[in-house]
Write a structure and sequence with these properties.
Blueprint (H helix, E strand, L loop, with lengths): L2 E9 L3 H9 L3 H4 L8 E6 L7 E8 L2 E13 L3 E8 L4 E10 L5 E10 L3 H35 L8 E5 L4 H12 L3 E4 L2 E2 L2 E2 L9 E4 L12 H20 L10 E7 L10 E2 L12 H17 L7 E7 L1 E3 L4 H11 L12 E2 L1 E3 H13 L5 E5 L5 E2 H12 L9 H8 L1 H7 L4 E2 L2 H5 L9 H9 L2
Parallel strand pairs: 8-9, 8-12, 12-13, 13-15, 14-21, 15-19, 16-18
Antiparallel strand pairs: 1-7, 2-3, 3-4, 4-5, 5-6, 6-7, 10-11, 17-20
Helix pairs in contact: 4-8, 5-6, 6-11, 9-13, 10-11
């Protein structure tokens, strides 16, 4: 039995801008839900008739292959993809685009589908299918509206060529798709060993330097600390030195950093004008030193005429990676709770707002020097755990004492997991940045599809 699902949104851009967004590289990745992601195994063509996409997705506990082929294409009006093989008995997805005056448009997703196993499948699975479609397309339309709105703010300015390091990381991968769908060119700077390839810097308008091994991926042994320093500080030093040989060096340099620079500050309210923490060889002192040295090397790009932005990022909220992804397993099992005293402050930012703030930094000349990439409402660790448990409909009462954290994580516990940082995004707000997720609950519900 065939069923139909429709979702429609009015969007604040002309229809040709809306359609062009979908035709650019990265559109599929931007619309891939963080809470129910699929893996692209094969892709040929764009939106034209005959284009083919092969993905792997999870249907309950089972991984399944889905092959879709594009069967209709009318520029600025529609494109259609149909399932060739996969989990449905039938799947026809028509993406329709209509003008709504000169400066707005309507996006309509129309899906005609049939579940397997005939009438039995419809009785057993239709409620689940509709719920899944609603979650997925609510996410897709939210991302689409946010991205178009953010890019439209700078539509009158030329598109940029952006050299990017750290493109394989959580932020870098999402940033690549976000920028390319906005019409910008992203040049991924790769490296041989720890030496960057400088050739892609020539002619670039901007650099976004996010390179660095994961701070919380492993215990901080001496070797791990050396890697953290080398992959950030030494790499950035080499990258900046490459500017000497350029005929046309980039005009903007967005340098990765972290709120770890502020150290363990208790209940102090911290803005961009707050002093960095004392540095040292261990714990929060090591992380502060790492961030300070990383910023120092990136700031040297000013000598080559670049406006330098030091992006001090908090805990990025995404179901696909970072701290939140690691917390999901114990919290879903009902084993989540406060860490240490639970009174330490945690400053967070949604992945979507991190991307938006990088775009803001690339275009806004008023943004210079340090900018705190955090949401406007930091929370205590106890509040974070209770809110995550509430969103997941799970209890959050299992405490993890500080001594247990230190036994498991060593210096990493005091350096990144137990430190208290109550950081506010003062410069972002002063320069007109608008948060898609101003509260932690909205960020969690979005990325978890709840």
């Amino acid at each position: 039995m065939s069923e139909t699902y429709v979702r429609e949104s009015k969007l604040p851009v002309p229809v040709d801008t809306l359609f062009a967004w979908h035709e650019r590289a990265g559109a599929f990745e931007r619309l891939n839900p963080s809470f129910d992601p699929v893996v692209i195994e094969e892709r040929s063509g764009g939106l034209e008739i005959g284009a083919r996409t092969v993905i792997r997705l999870k249907v309950g506990p089972v991984s399944q292959r889905w092959v879709a082929v594009h069967t209709a294409y009318e520029k600025n009006r529609l494109f259609r993809d149909e399932q060739e093989s996969g989990p449905f008995a039938k799947w026809v997805h028509t993406h329709r685009f209509e003008p709504d005056g000169p400066d707005a448009s309507i996006m309509r997703d129309e899906i005609s589908y049939e579940l397997p196993m005939g009438s039995l499948g419809a009785v057993v699975g239709d409620r689940f299918a509709r719920s899944t479609l609603e979650r997925n397309f609510a996410y897709r339309h939210t991302v689409l509206r946010s991205d178009l709105t953010r890019h439209a703010k700078y539509a009158s300015q030329p598109r940029k060529i952006i050299a990017l390091t750290g493109a394989s990381g959580l932020i870098g991968a999402a940033l690549t798709a976000f920028l390319t769908t906005g019409g910008h060119e992203v040049r991924v700077i790769k490296r041989v060993g720890n030496v960057p390839d400088p050739s892609l810097l020539e002619g670039a308008d901007a650099v976004v330097n996010l390179a660095g091994a994961g701070v919380a991926d492993e215990r901080w042994s001496a070797a791990r600390k050396a890697l953290l320093v080398d992959s950030r500080v030494q790499f950035t030093r080499t990258l900046v030195r490459a500017l000497e040989k350029l005929k046309s060096p980039p005009k903007v340099w967005v340098q990765g950093s972290a709120i770890g620079l502020y150290g363990d500050r208790g209940d102090d309210v911290l803005t961009e004008t707050s002093a960095p923490a004392p540095t040292g060889p261990s714990g929060a002192g090591f992380l502060a030193q790492l961030c300070a040295d990383w910023e120092t090397e990136g700031a040297k790009a000013e000598a080559y005429g670049a406006r330098v932005v030091l992006l001090r990022t908090g805990l990025v909220q995404s179901a696909t990676g970072g701290a939140l992804a690691r917390l999901l397993v114990p919290f879903k099992a009902g084993a989540g709770g406060p860490v240490g005293t639970g009174r330490q402050w945690q400053s967070w930012i949604s992945l979507e707002d991190e991307l938006g703030l990088i775009l803001h930094s690339l275009f806004e000349d008023r943004v210079r020097g340090p900018i705190n990439a955090v949401g406007p409402e930091p929370v205590t660790n106890t509040d974070y755990g209770q809110l995550l448990g509430h969103v997941l409909s799970r209890p959050a009462l299992m405490p993890l004492p500080a001594f247990a954290m230190r036994a498991v994580f060593g210096e990493l516990a005091d350096g990144a997991l137990l430190a208290s940082q109550r950081v506010l995004p003062a410069l972002a707000l002063q320069t007109g940045f608008s948060f898609l997720h101003p509260t932690l609950e909205s960020a969690l519900r979005f990325t978890l599809g709840r």
